[in-house]
């Protein structure tokens, strides 16, 4: 992957974030939300991600935009506590985890009525959602079918990304010791690929190990960095964390895809891999340059990820990862 | 999407928000026995069957209203992706030979739906080849299409940019100025499910489908470890938005892959299939299989006929692929004697695509 020729560069590494923040701000919908794509309808995940990014970048200093997103989310929370991925839908409600994150953060850093009740109802719904388990022998799929995590869609099997999102949310509201979290952590470790990293949820199918993917690997590493080491098996660092970091260190230099870069870099930063984080500023800048050349692609979803990655430490703090992570030998990793 | 193929009447305009919101609950079958039951599996074979047919057993399908339907399918040989001009010429000639209505294409919006499954530079046999997609786009541009889009809602990887980048398609789209739409995160409209092979009364579809006058399925010619083959009909799984159905379209897997294929095709009604079999995949498809350099492009307006022909080319009996057998007379023609083969013959072009080595594959081949 090569950088564009110098004469084509329109921004410096220092000022692309200002450009990205401005583009993100101008795509705000009705003063309270963001879409995935330019000109599309509002969505929960993209709105919360945009708030995270703008707060991490210091572009929402009084938390007003975060509060407005948080208030908007309450307007379509269902009576059962769930929050659909888009306001015009009732289901699917995997975005409830994102709503909890936003409410929790808004309660913490903004002025306004407490969001305790929406959080309570959303957590109650989340704890009632269980990925389906399948009994019997499984000679086809390699992972443990009997561990319960969270599915994308109610009534289906658990996958890595929604499980990570749910644990993030529960951890953000101080429920990291809940039994569901403990089982979800087992599931996440069980789904780690033997050769390092995670894909989306499977390890082997018909005996063949599947390929890792940097996005889910980064997301999962971010989560595990926030888990107290005594809650993980003693060999987690050697067997799972280190191979996953090694995978990210080899795969991230080959991509400039905004979302993948974001989660991969956050995963590295969460585990103290700051040499890669330094390198990453040019990767993020190159990714931003690509969006500048293709204005239609400079949508809230991509922009928010790039900004969040550029301010990785703050983003992690907002997610509730770094402050709750005690110093631990299992985070000391060889270069 | 033109009126002939529109999945109306339940469009966003006619579907109030509250109905839409409630509709998904029913559509997903949430809280019903469909989800709670049938999950106690006794062995791996049962696990495979439940993945293929869902947890509800086989459905009662509508009668075959077109039992004598006929179709034309063209088979051509192309050895590699290296010659762009030859690819464009082969595809253009093929479409003309099949009787493409050029007046209908002129000024129309053409939506190309490739098969993008997973990002991997090391395994280009996973995804429809970028130069194949380029050639089809160029062919439609030569026919004076108003707009050519490429759209996909890939099954596993949420980051579309990563899939495009790693597959090599991003560079092609950028060079040729072709717009790409991420169907996983598109706006949504609701369409009635006329086939009812699943118990989903409605399907949630990406709004971009309504923008298209002509939907073209561009699959890779691959074996599939659950469905036997993945061709132009299975490729339409990719229009279903992950935002609603999960990754990898979990609701549809629970409803049954085979049944979902029928429902999606009956609802969306794609117009044309052009199958990239220049290098296909056999073995543990659709992701972990081996490259299979078959050197073939197969095309036609009747998707079941194209897929049945491809299955025969792969030495798999389409009658043993449940969704193909059920599509005959309902969505198109799959019987060999009702498909007029143009170009190369099946007998001269067929080559055995190996299936994954598992007892469950006996369903598809002894």
Automatic annotation (TrEMBL), chain B:
- Which Pfam families does the entry mention? DUF362
By what name is this protein known? Answer: DUF362 domain-containing protein
Q: What is the lineage of its organism?
A: Bacteria, Pseudomonadati, Planctomycetota, Planctomycetia, Isosphaerales
Species source reads: Isosphaera pallida (strain ATCC 43644 / DSM 9630 / IS1B)
Q: Which InterPro entries match?
A: DUF362, TAT_signal
Which ranges carry the DUF362 domain?
110-312
């Amino acid at each position: 992957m090569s950088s564009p020729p110098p004469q084509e560069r329109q921004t410096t590494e220092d000022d692309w974030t200002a450009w990205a923040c401005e583009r993100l701000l101008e795509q705000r919908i009705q003063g309270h939300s963001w879409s995935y794509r330019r000109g599309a309808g509002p969505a929960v995940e993209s709105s919360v991600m945009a708030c995270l990014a703008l707060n991490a970048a210091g572009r929402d200093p009084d938390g007003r935009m975060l509060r407005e997103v948080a208030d908007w989310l309450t307007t379509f929370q269902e009576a059962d506590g769930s929050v659909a991925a888009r306001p015009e839908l009732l289901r699917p409600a995997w975005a409830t985890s994102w709503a909890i994150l936003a409410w929790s953060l808004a309660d913490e850093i903004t002025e306004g009525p407490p969001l305790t009740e929406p959080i309570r109802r959303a957590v109650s719904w989340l704890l009632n959602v269980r990925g389906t388990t399948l009994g019997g022998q499984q000679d086809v799929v390699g992972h443990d079918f009997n561990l319960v995590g969270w599915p994308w869609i109610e009534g289906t099997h658990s996958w890595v990304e929604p499980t990570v999102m749910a644990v993030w949310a529960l951890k953000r509201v101080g429920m990291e010791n809940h039994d569901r979290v403990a089982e979800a952590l087992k599931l996440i470790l069980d789904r780690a690929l033997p050769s390092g990293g995670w894909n989306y949820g499977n390890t082997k199918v018909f005996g063949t190990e599947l390929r890792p993917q940097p996005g889910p690997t980064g997301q999962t590493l971010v989560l595990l960095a926030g888990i107290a080491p005594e809650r993980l098996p003693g060999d987690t660092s050697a067997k799972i964390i280190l191979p996953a970091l090694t995978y990210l260190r080899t795969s991230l230099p080959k991509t400039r895809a905004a979302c993948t870069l974001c989660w991969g870099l956050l995963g590295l930063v969460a585990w103290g891999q700051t040499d890669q984080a330094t390198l990453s500023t040019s990767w993020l800048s190159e990714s931003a340059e690509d969006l500048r050349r293709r204005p239609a692609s400079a949508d809230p979803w991509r922009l928010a990820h790039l900004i969040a990655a550029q301010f990785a430490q703050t983003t992690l703090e907002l997610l509730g990862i770094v402050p709750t992570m005690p110093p631990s030998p299992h985070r000391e990793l060889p270069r | 999407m033109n009126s002939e193929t529109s999945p109306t009447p339940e469009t966003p305009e006619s579907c109030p928000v509250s109905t839409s919101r409630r509709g998904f609950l029913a559509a997903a079958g949430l809280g019903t026995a469909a989800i709670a039951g049938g999950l106690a599996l006794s062995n791996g074979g049962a696990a495979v069957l439940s993945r293929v047919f869902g947890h509800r057993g086989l459905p009662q399908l509508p009668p075959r209203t077109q039992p004598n339907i006929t179709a034309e399918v063209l088979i051509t040989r192309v050895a590699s992706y290296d010659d762009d001009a030859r690819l464009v010429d082969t595809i253009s000639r093929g479409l003309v030979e099949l009787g493409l209505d050029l007046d209908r294409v002129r000024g129309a919006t053409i939506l190309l739906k490739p098969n993008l499954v997973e990002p991997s530079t090391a395994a280009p046999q996973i995804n429809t080849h970028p130069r194949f997609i380029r050639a089809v786009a160029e062919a439609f541009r030569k026919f004076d299409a108003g707009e050519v889009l490429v759209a996909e809602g890939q099954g596993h990887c949420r980051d579309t940019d990563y899939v495009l980048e790693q597959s090599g398609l991003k560079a092609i789209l950028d060079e040729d100025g072709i717009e790409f739409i991420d169907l996983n995160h598109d706006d949504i409209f609701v369409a009635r499910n006329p086939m009812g092979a699943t118990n989903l009364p409605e399907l949630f579809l990406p709004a971009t489908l309504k923008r298209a006058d002509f939907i073209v399925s561009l699959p890779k010619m691959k074996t599939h470890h659950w469905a036997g083959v993945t061709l132009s009909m299975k490729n339409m799984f990719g229009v279903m938005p992950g935002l609603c159905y999960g990754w990898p379209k979990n609701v549809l897997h629970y409803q049954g892959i085979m049944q979902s294929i029928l429902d999606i095709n009956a609802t969306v009604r794609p117009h044309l299939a052009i199958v990239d079999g220049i290098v296909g995949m056999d073995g543990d498809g659709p992701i972990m299989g081996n490259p299979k350099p078959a050197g073939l492009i197969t095309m036609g307006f009747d998707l079941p006929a194209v897929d049945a022909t491809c299955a025969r080319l792969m030495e798999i009996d389409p009658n043993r692929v449940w969704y193909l057998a059920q599509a005959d007379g309902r969505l198109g023609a799959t019987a060999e004697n009702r498909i007029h083969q143009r170009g190369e013959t099946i007998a001269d072009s067929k080559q055995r695509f190996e299936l994954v080595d598992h007892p469950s594959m006996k369903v598809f081949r002894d």
